[in-house]
Amino acid sequence: MNRVFSKLMSTLGYTVQYYCIAHCTFQYVANIVVCTGPSMEPTIYTDDILITERLTLNYRNLQRGDIIIARCPSSPRDQICKRITGLPGDRMITELGRSSIVPRGHVWIEGDNRSNSSDSRSYGPIPQGLIKSRAVCKVWPPQEICSFTE
Amino acid sequence: MKIPNFVKSLLVGLPVGVTILDTVGYVARVDGISMQPALNPDRESTDYVFLNRWAIQTRTEIERGDIISMVSPKDPEQKIIKRVVGIEGDIIATLGYKREVVRVPEGHCWVEGDHTGHSMDSNNFGPVSLGLVTAKASCIVWPPSRWQYIKSFLPESRHPLNNTVQ
């Protein structure tokens, strides 16, 4: 009985440890993301798998052209995958044809599929604090493996 | 190769510690006067509050009157602590924002410091996305004389316009 109990406890201990290591890795180092939706075609299609990292993600080195994973501004549980097209100070054109200047601490994001993407053109610049990670490469499907950082 | 014992325990202990801080909560110092009188009521003392991460992760909806910490929309490297005045759908009479009345959009909230006029809040940068909210301040833990749970509280004058009984 005692042996079963101690075996159980050590299994539990290992589970907690591995959970914590996984949490920290996914939260602070790198993550695997499965994309859905047409907004980033032709770069990324539905069910493509990306590796994203946040180790070197520094709000000062964001660049136009980076593909980022961010929380959706209108529903914080969802994540969106878009490309940064404007940095603070840039003048951007909204859906309605008006121009808008990206404020400090924000970025302007757009999908590559401009005809089918809900992005900054409709909801405006998003705070940089919503950015969770930056896409590094595509690993699935195998014939389309490529890196996003040139 | 033999790994020394203390390195081994560090390799395991560090992720465990970080995960606990991430999911349960942590203690943080409150800087500035923007939340007077609820936090930092006088110049001499600095309050330390327990920031409850669990409350944000398990239920999405934050309520009017809660004190929350969030990433500043103006500077992603700065955290701010404010009181939630309006949740999505509320109509807020603003105090010096570019529009007099604002409807809080979906997935956003309206936050204000208690110290009106001395606070960088939604009256300055508008409604903020809930995705920026990191934790709910649940109690003041230091100094000991200030030990208390933080009550959810909203002054009568700051209730949303669509919610007041006429």
Automatic annotation (TrEMBL), chain A:
Family annotation (PANTHER family): MITOCHONDRIAL INNER MEMBRANE PROTEASE SUBUNIT 1 (PTHR12383:SF16), PROTEASE FAMILY S26 MITOCHONDRIAL INNER MEMBRANE PROTEASE-RELATED (PTHR12383)
Annotated keywords: Hydrolase, Membrane, Mitochondrion, Mitochondrion inner membrane, Protease
Gene from which the chain derives: LOC108564154
NCBIfam families named among the record's database cross-references: sigpep_I_bact
GO biological process per UniProt: proteolysis
InterPro entries linked to this entry: LexA/Signal_pep-like_sf, Mito_IMP1_subunit, Pept_S26A_signal_pept_1, Pept_S26A_signal_pept_1_CS, Peptidase_S26
Domain Peptidase S26: 14-92, 99-140
Name of the protein in its database record: Mitochondrial inner membrane protease subunit
Main location: mitochondrion
CDD domains: S26_SPase_I
Pfam families (alphabetical): Peptidase_S26
Keyword check for Membrane: yes
From TrEMBL, chain B:
UniProt topology in membrane: Single-pass membrane protein
Alphabetized UniProt keyword annotations: Hydrolase, Membrane, Mitochondrion, Mitochondrion inner membrane, Protease, Transmembrane, Transmembrane helix
The protein's name in its UniProt record: Mitochondrial inner membrane protease subunit 2
Record-annotated Peptidase S26 domain positions: 5-93, 99-142
UniProt source species: Nicrophorus vespilloides
GO biological process, one term: proteolysis
Keyword Membrane: yes
Localization terms from the record: Mitochondrion inner membrane
Record family assignment: Belongs to the peptidase S26 family. IMP2 subfamily.
Signal sequence bounds: none
Database matches in InterPro entries: IMP2 (IPR037730), LexA/Signal_pep-like_sf (IPR036286), Pept_S26A_signal_pept_1 (IPR000223), Peptidase_S26 (IPR019533)
Subunit field text: Heterodimer of 2 subunits, IMMPL1 and IMMPL2.
Domain of life: Eukaryota
Alphabetized CDD domains for the sequence: S26_SPase_I
Gene3D superfamilies the UniProt entry points to: Umud Fragment, subunit A (2.10.109.10)
Keyword Lipid metabolism part of the UniProt annotation: no
Pfam family, one: Peptidase_S26
